[in-house]
Design a protein that fits this description.
The protein is mainly alpha-helical. Helices cover about 65% and strands about 5% of the residues. It has helices at about 15-20, 25-45, 50-60, 65-75, 80-90, 110-135, 140-150, and strands at about 95-100, 105-110. It has a two-stranded antiparallel ribbon. A hairpin with a 7-residue loop joins strand 1 (about 95-100) and strand 2 (about 105-110). The radius of gyration is 21 Å and the shape is globular.
């Protein structure tokens, strides 16, 4: 019986080393998970995730968002936004209401309960955000946010 052979040659160990040390995608993913965990831990007593906090914060603006506009603002697709909104709707933190001028359009509004929870979460956010910025060492947080914003533009 012939030995099994791989249809593709094995990648070189150099590739693994290069990716591990120079890949921006991997570095951003690792950092995102670490930062996300920090915020998730802080928000856990409030029953929120960092994504849910971000949604509530975005919805605190004066003009209510449509799902499409919220998705664009968050850099997510509509289905992801919709699935992330469901637990917030169930908890009555947000409500989906018909637009005043066009009943076909749905607007997402922050409820009074959502505003109260966001106020409590905001204090936690400030603490954790300052801690994360301090972990950057010599890296300027404004420069980092600007660079990441440029990358997010695609």
């Amino acid at each position: 019986m012939p030995a099994a052979t791989s249809p593709n040659p094995s990648p070189s160990p150099d590739l693994a080393h290069m990716v591990g040390h120079t890949c921006l995608c991997l570095a951003v993913q690792r950092a995102s998970r670490a930062v996300g965990r920090s915020f998730d831990e802080a928000f856990r007593p409030l029953g929120l995730t960092n994504w849910q906090f971000s949604l509530l914060a975005m919805l605190s603006r004066p003009e209510p968002f449509t799902v499409t506009r919220l998705a664009e603002s968050m850099g997510m697709d509509r289905t992801t936004i919709t699935s992330n909104l469901k637990p917030l709707v169930r908890r009555a933190l947000v409500a989906v209401a018909a637009d005043g001028s066009d009943k076909r359009v749905r607007r997402i509004v922050l409820t009074a309960a959502g505003q109260a929870l966001l106020a409590a979460a905001g204090a936690l956010w400030q603490q954790v955000n300052a801690q994360v910025e301090a972990r950057l060492g010599e890296v300027d947080p404004i420069t980092l946010r600007t660079a990441l914003g440029e990358l997010a533009k695609g």
